[in-house]
Structure formats: C-alpha cells, structure tokens
Amino acid sequence: MPLVMMCGFPSSGKTRVAKALEEHLKANTRMKVVRISDETLGLTKDQFQSSLSEKPARAALKAAVEREMSSDVIVIADALNYIKGFRYELFCIARSLKSPHCVVHTVTSMDVSRNWNQNRTDGKEYPSDMFEALLQRFECPDSRSRWDRPLFTIEPEEQIPFEEIVLYVQGEAKDKAKAATASQPLASDTVHDVDRTSQAVMAEILQKLPGAVPGDQISVSFCPEKVLLSRALTMAELRRIKRQFATYCKTHPVEDVSSIASQFIRFINSNLGT
User: Fold this and answer.
1) Which pTM was predicted?
2) What pLDDT shows up at residue 131?
3) Which of 30, 78, 105, 115 has the fewest CB atoms found within 10 Å of its own CB?
4) How many CB atoms within 10 Å of residue 119?
5) Rounded to 5 degrees, what are φ and ψ at 146?
C-alpha cells in the first residue's frame, strides 16, 4: 500500500519521472503499480485556473488515491501536489493505513519550466496566465515536515534514484534520504542570512519602485546585479517572490552567503520573465 507523491512546477518533468518509476516498480517488485494523474482521471487544465476551481480536481485525486490503496498496490500520485495542505491530506491517508510513503520533487527553475511549457509539442501546455498563477501558488516541499519526508529531489538530467525509492516504498529503509538525492534543511544561521539579505534587497527595490516603469533597471547598492523591470512589479508580488526564494533555498543550499543578494535578484528577474 505504499504511496509516492510527485511534486513540482507545471511542466517540470513530473510525468516523465512518474512513468519511468512506474515501469521500474513493475519490473522490480511483485506489487501492482497504479499511477493516478489528471489525465487518467479525465481532468482538464481549465480546472486549475484558480485555487477555487481546482478544488474538485484535488478532491477527485484524493478519492482515487484512497480508493486504490491496498496492501498489494503501490500508488503513484502523478500530479502537481503543490499545496502542502493537500500533501498532508494524502500523507494522512497513507498513515491511516500504516503505509510507507515518499515525496519525489522534480526541481527546475521557473525559467526552465516556463521554456519547457512554451515548447511542448503534445498539446498539453498550460496557458501562460494559468502557468504563472500556478508558479505563484506553489508551496515547495520541506523535508522537515513529516508529510514531505522522505523527500527525493530530482533535477533535470539527473538520474532517478530508483533503488532508494524502492527501499522506502517497500518499508525497508529508515526515514532518512541520502544526501545525493534528498533535500537537507538549511542551518539556522543560513536561514537568517537568506532572510536578512533578501529583506535588505527588497527594501531598496521598494524605495525605487514608485518612480520606475517597465524597461527600467533597478540597482541595489551592495550588489552588482540589477532588477530588469520587464513589466510592472507590485509590492505584494515582490513579497511573494521573497517567500518563494526562501523556500527555493531550502532545496538549493547556499554555499556562499555573499552571493545571496545576486541570487535573489536573478530569482526576481526569473519571475519577471527576463
């Protein structure tokens, strides 16, 4: 009755990984493997236009997971699963059945996912406005949360850690992931550095934002990088980007604290589509 929760940006390679994992599990375990996705449930992308309209879609996925889980079935929830509260609901289903579970996060930058979405040839691309809205609503999995662990992160071109995932879903491994494949929480001092630096960058940007227009470049006194204002940027959006950057740093540990400001500004530019 193991549960594998896929998670990631739209057009980040979740289904590619899920299908590869499905085939590996079928070939290397004696259990039945069921992959549940928006497509297998007959859901359309129109249902993800807003957080309100997608509630029936999440309910359908949750019901399908609960229906399929049994002692001899591995369920792969191949969907965005980008809301931490929803991942918790799926975790509770697994826990109620005393079932092992894991989260597989396909990690891409916003730019990479945006490019992949724009260049899809299968007719399954997300409309631009919906894609951007989903990026804004995304809540990155955090290995410190019991419903998000064990957490396996897979970046583009990285090999899928089949054997480690199999050990977890079969209940043969302890609740810890190898450093090469699992997200590690940031040290408390690094978390502070990320928050303090990004707050300072944001403060300078907010000071200069009222007089700026699309096409301007906003400089920050202590960083060589510049914000490329390709479109209007509101205070609310900038704060949201700051929160997303903090979450991003949890799965992409900062090696040099002196680079945090530059990384944050590049992250802002990525969100602005520059």
Assistant:
1) 0.65
2) 93
3) 30
4) 9
5) -65, -30
- Reduced DSSP (H G I as helix, E B as strand, rest coil) percent helix, strand, coil of the chain, to 5: 50, 15, 40
Q: Band of the pLDDT at 178, cuts 50, 70, 90?
A: very low
Cβ–Cβ under 8 Å, residues 54 and 137: no
d(CA 149, CA 155): 17
pLDDT-derived band at 188 (thresholds 50, 70, 90) equals: low
User: How far is it, in rounded angstroms, from Cα 187 to Cα 195?
Assistant: 13
- Interval 9-22 mean pLDDT: 95
Q: 3-state class of 67 per DSSP?
A: helix
| Residue 44: strand, helix, or coil | coil
Q: Which amino acid is at 234?
A: T
Strand partners of residue 33: 74
- Give the list of residues 6+ apart from residue 95 with CB closer than 8 angstroms, or none: 101
The confidence score (pLDDT) of residue 49 equals: 83
> For the residues of 59-117, what is the DSSP string, one character each?
HHHHHHHHHH--TTEEEEEES----HHHHHHHHHHHHHTT--EEEEEE---HHHHHHHH
Average model confidence (pLDDT) across the chain:
86
